[in-house]
Specification:
Distance between the termini of chain A: 68 Å
Shape of chain A: globular
Largest sheet of chain A: 7 strands, mixed
Helix content of chain A: 25-40%
CATH architecture of the largest domain in chain A: 3-Layer(bba) Sandwich
Radius of gyration of chain A: 24 Å
Largest interface: A-B, 87 and 87 residues
CATH class of the largest domain in chain A: Alpha Beta
Number of domains of chain A: 3
Oligomer: homodimer
Number of strands of chain A: 24
CATH superfamily of the largest domain in chain A: FAD/NAD(P)-binding domain
CATH topology of the largest domain in chain A: FAD/NAD(P)-binding domain
Structural class of chain A: alpha/beta
Chain lengths: 467, 467
């Protein structure tokens, strides 16, 4: 280690400053490690700058437009608002900036040494930085890789960021009066379908599977689908996109029913803009993984064990780079587990089934734990109970009478196995289900717990009490 | 027991059909009892018809007005809405009616025999009904008294329901352009202050104690007070009302600083309307309590043990009639405890400290469990940790940067002892704190739990992780 800054040693080098990277760095510094954090962009990562936070700002705007357009029946008659798209962007940016400053402050006060640079492995304990002022070398026995992911493009159709856009482009895209296709009915596609529609766009989602949000509880998906339909989003599910081409007017898609024979005559669909939201690819390129012998999965994710270890030296990976749920809150926890493991603690590994999932539309769709089907497949004596939100006072007050919550439980043991629902603000209610799922008798405890009245949360209690 | 309906026997007679009465009746019927429920008004009680539900409908309206008036900065510029007060009332009533039908349906399908009648005890096992069709007598070994409470009037100033109004009158009161005094800065007074102000009223709260919401955490109260002030509510705390008189123009109050000498020259204040919200009195009159020897406290509440037993025969009391927190959710649970005790089960008594409390203003103020001060008084090695909502993404997105959450915990045992906060939608987050407080290691478990990002709920996790 030299003091001129050209070659320095740390206990941990973290590459990537998103939810995995900065949280891992902070936890490591709490545990007494000397930590270097490398981030060539801005700390906070995609989640803060192009993901969770900016989309939720837009969804908040979309929610207000929905509420005011429906409130005449409740005695408040609004004219449509004058929409200033630049201000919408700017006010979202204010939130992002504030949180960005917060993270920078935490890193600084935690003593984390932050480098505005990318980095690549040179063996198992060395990282080469390529910043503006030339190369620099850092040493550490432990390295946490957390470079995240980027939007996947459609084969043969690279993003031009004008007509063929990704989720980052979509954040600054004014959809008013435009005909927009969204390729992929996952969380990103569905959230943007509502944002674009409420801001005056004409939106069609194209999804290969039989419904949007494949893999999620079909009953919940069906409720949300009807809601999106009611709001004016056109859902084209069970369709396969054969080819896509750009032209002067925009983008042309040729689609056939999924599973149709190759001779099926395709339907040609013209849109002005196409948001491609078919998933994300881990950012492994240029990381020097070969130099250390780090192994990738077929999806190009770093293969890790349940504490995030890559199997090579002191190299760990967390967050989107390690595949899995690709959710910010999972990423942060994965990084904490890695770092605690490095510190010689014995952290509980993350059970993917207990990572809560949210679609932040209005209404929200949430889930955590097992569905009834999953529980029964595991051989658990599970039953399911439901409660309709049209019998929940707070939901009715929020104007929601179509939602539902459902609980999956083991009545013998009193365990809560799973929770899901569609309804207003259910994301805020997920934590009580997550906590209960972690207990041996969570369902029993919840059914004896006193929920404040009136809340949407009470619906969990009502569901559990249903006979 | 005769079949002509003049004299019938049940296992349990419940007098009063509010949250305590109907929930007790339902639980008893689940447990196999033959149950009679007496309600001279509408099942659902004050909570459904004149309390929790209608006020929250009005607060929802008030919230939307607040949001749209502040949203120009976020890119949505609204003209003030045309307010149709009759429609506001009507749409709130739609919610009430739906829930009312729901309760009636549950009682019917549960086999509860409902009498549209009041009832009075005639000894420990007999109740006399005075319905339209004359008197009728019911017998039961067990009787659950749940007749609730009514607003207290100011000594010497009976409610005239025109200028001197109670919280029920306030629900159908159009505050627009009116000068309104609110006597009492408790939850009811504070919630109505925001409703009236957002609908165009000019509101002053008069509170004897040094701040509104006496007894609640002063730091939280101070945040909410500033917020109300910003919204235009005038708070006159630490003032004692000497006399109040009605006159042609409205109501005149003479106030002095609380604790001032009797010679202090009073300030005369004129308002057009006065909402008296100084608490509630249990409805014991006409219940025939003497006939059974049931004892009342100084506050006219039925004195009960921790399972709701009055100490006389099989007579129990639950809800406002038994004093205490006077909250709907506490009432329901108290009734469940009574009924399970009657059924020979061994229900856990309710610990009043674990009954969550909410002020449903915007922002909401919530608490459950112990404050730091209370925990330290109990000799617990408690510490407090706080997290400002200006560092919470979802709160910023909701437009809230003034709120805070705080946790009280025992770091040695990992127990969560208390939780409180001021912020958007915190009522929905209370259940996770309530559940955690009931565990021996709730704080530790919560700090290892995965909260969805971004949510306001995450602030609990952040608070727990704060060093």
């Amino acid at each position: 280690m030299s003091d001129d800054g050209s070659e320095r040693s740390f206990d941990l080098i973290v590459i990537g400053g998103g939810p995995a990277g900065y949280m891992g760095a902070l936890r490591a510094s709490e545990l007494g490690m000397r930590v270097a954090l490398l981030e060539s962009g801005k700390v906070g990562g995609v989640c803060l700058h192009q993901g969770c936070i900016p989309t939720k700002s837009l969804l908040e705007v979309s929610s207000l437009i929905q509420k005011t357009s429906a409130s005449a029946a409740n005695g408040l008659q609004y004219d449509p608002p004058r929409i200033d798209f630049a201000k919408i962007m700017a006010s979202g940016q204010v939130v992002v900036n504030r949180l960005h400053q917060g993270i920078k402050h935490l890193l600084k006060s935690g003593g984390v040494v932050t480098f505005e640079s990318s980095g690549r492995l040179a063996g198992v304990d060395k990282v080469i930085l390529s910043g503006r002022s030339g190369e620099q070398i850092l040493h550490a026995d432990n390295i946490l890789l957390a470079t995240g992911s980027r939007p996947k493009d459609f084969p043969g159709l690279p993003f031009d960021h004008e007509r063929v856009i990704d989720s980052s482009d979509a954040l600054s895209f004014n959809p008013s009066g435009k005909k927009i296709g969204i390729l992929g009915g996952g969380v990103v596609g569905v959230e943007f379908s509502q944002i674009f529609t409420s801001l005056g766009g004409n939106v069609t989602i194209f999804e290969r599977e039989r419904s949007i949000l494949p893999g999620e509880d079909p009953e919940l998906v069906s409720i949300l689908s009807r809601e999106l339909d009611r709001q004016g989003v056109l859902l084209r599910c069970g369709v396969s996109v054969g080819s896509i081409s750009r032209n002067d007017q925009g983008v042309s898609l040729s689609i056939v029913p999924a599973g149709a024979s190759t001779e099926t005559f395709p339907e040609e669909i013209a849109v002005e803009y196409l948001l491609v939201a078919i998933g994300r690819t881990p950012n492994t390129a240029g990381l020097g993984l070969d130099s250390a012998g780090v192994i990738l999965s077929r999806d190009k994710a770093v293969i890790v064990d349940d504490s995030g270890w890559s199997g090579v030296g002191g190299i760990y990976a967390a967050g989107d780079l390690a595949g899995g749920a690709m959710l910010a809150h999972a990423a942060s926890h994965e990084a904490i587990v890695c770092v605690e493991k490095i510190a010689g603690l014995d952290p509980d590994p993350i059970d993917p089934i207990n990572v809560p999932r949210v679609v932040y539309t209005h209404p929200e769709m949430v889930s955590v734990g097992l569905t009834l089907e999953q529980a029964q497949k595991k051989g658990l004596p599970a039953i399911q109970k439901k409660f309709p939100l049209m019998a929940n006072g707070r939901s009715l007050i929020h104007g929601d009478r179509r939602g539902i919550v459902k609980v999956v439980l083991d009545e013998t043991s009193g365990a809560l196995l799973g929770f899901g629902g569609v309804g207003p603000g259910l994301s805020e209610i997920l934590p009580v289900a997550t906590l209960a799922i972690g207990l041996p008798d969570g369902a029993r405890r919840l059914s004896h717990s006193i929920f404040p009245h009136p809340t949407v949360a009470e619906a969990i209690w009502d569901a559990l009490r249903t006979r």
